[in-house]
Write a structure and sequence with these properties.
three-stranded mixed β-sheet, alpha/beta, 11 helices
């Protein structure tokens, strides 16, 4: 066989092999590209990058682009999709428990307080929330029934931000929850811990809650993996606040946002009722927990991040000059000062669209 013919056949086979390899490469590339679309979509959902641009659309006082509006709903699209299914509860079908880790969580969140938020906008974005601030997942049985209790007075703007951010987070966490804003009536000196005791009592009048989250109205979590639920030990949820440079100010700190089961709460006789003004009650609560052999559990620092809405000190909430003396005697007083000695007068209870407002007269020092 002539040499030219041999060379041509070899070249021909080589070209065919190269073409086949190219086709295989293209096929593999297409497969990986299609698979990456799901990853990219999930990544986009996981970013809450609220960009307030001039081209954005002004809705409810928050400037947002079309993309921002989808993100600002806190992945509510996923929630809406699950809620379009027929209500298993109404059909009498036995629901399975929700997963231990909700598949709806998106992780780190962008939290900003640059633009005001209107209640109408928050209502529009949370149409699944029932009157009184109640919600429960329809596709599964929530693992915990949680009462969110907020001590309150003269913080209307802060409450709007709280409702704007927390309702979508709590829904994604697949909780059976209710929001109770406990408002101190009148202008006497503020008593945060006593209001928390009132919230415990009043919430149980409505539902058999088993977990209680006590939250200041000016603290917003920056990661929805920080679940507002109860654990085997009392839980401190606001671990790393921007106010403290995202660090825990001291090991015994239990302020801001915390959770306790019903059993844990009753074991320490609830909270003290005699801390009037700012400061001291959180350390008293820590002493109560410690005296009963309990320890504080916390999420990881990056998960427990939260932002505080900046504000000046409230009137009638000056530092409590008696706080250090009272903290020193917690073990002596906790048996007689707490839920077993709580006294208050219910002024009004209102079932609003996003929360239950409980106005009470807690007396004065």
């Amino acid at each position: 066989m002539p040499a030219d013919s041999v060379n041509f056949n070899l070249l021909h086979r080589t070209c065919k092999l190269v073409v086949l390899l190219c086709l295989l490469h293209i096929f593999v590339t297409v497969v990986f590209y299609v698979r990456s679309l799901d990853i990219r979509f999930a990544f986009v959902q996981n970013q809450q990058n609220y960009k307030h641009t001039a081209s954005g659309q002004k809705t409810g006082g928050v400037t947002q682009t079309e993309s921002d509006r989808k993100l600002a709903s806190g992945a509510n699209g996923t929630i809406q999709q699950s809620l379009t299914q027929s209500s298993n509860r109404e059909s009498g079908k036995v629901l399975e428990k929700c997963p231990e880790t909700s598949p709806l969580l998106v992780g780190p969140l962008r939290v900003e307080f640059n633009s005001p938020v209107s209640l109408d906008f928050v209502k529009k974005e949370n149409q699944n929330v029932e009157v009184g601030g109640r919600f429960r997942p329809r596709g599964c049985l929530a693992r915990q029934k949680v009462a969110i209790i907020i001590p309150f007075r003269h913080r209307e703007e802060h409450l709007k931000y709280w409702l704007y951010y927390l309702h979508p987070i709590l829904q994604r966490q697949q909780l059976d929850y209710g929001v109770y804003v406990i408002q101190q009536d009148g202008e006497e000196i503020f008593n945060r811990a006593k209001l928390l005791n009132v919230g415990y009592v009043e919430s149980l009048k409505e539902y058999d809650y088993e977990c209680f989250v006590f939250s200041d109205v000016d603290l917003i979590p920056m990661d929805d993996r920080n679940t507002y639920t109860c654990f085997s030990q009392p839980r401190h949820l606001s671990v790393s606040m921007d106010k403290f440079g995202f660090r825990l100010p001291y090991k015994q700190y239990f302020g801001g946002v915390s959770s306790m089961s019903k059993e844990q709460y009753l074991k320490i006789n609830g909270f003290p009722n005699n801390y009037w003004g700012w400061g001291g009650e959180d350390d008293d609560i820590y002493n109560r927990l410690s005296s009963k052999g309990m320890s504080i559990s916390r999420p990881a620092g990056d998960v427990g991040k939260c932002r505080m809405i900046r504000h000046s000190r409230d009137k009638k909430n000056d530092p409590n000059p008696q706080r250090f003396n009272r903290i020193a005697h917690t073990r002596e007083t906790m048996g007689k000062d707490g839920i077993n000695s709580l006294q208050y007068r219910l002024v009004k209870k209102e079932k609003l669209e996003l929360y239950t407002m409980v106005t009470v007269d807690v007396g004065k020092p």
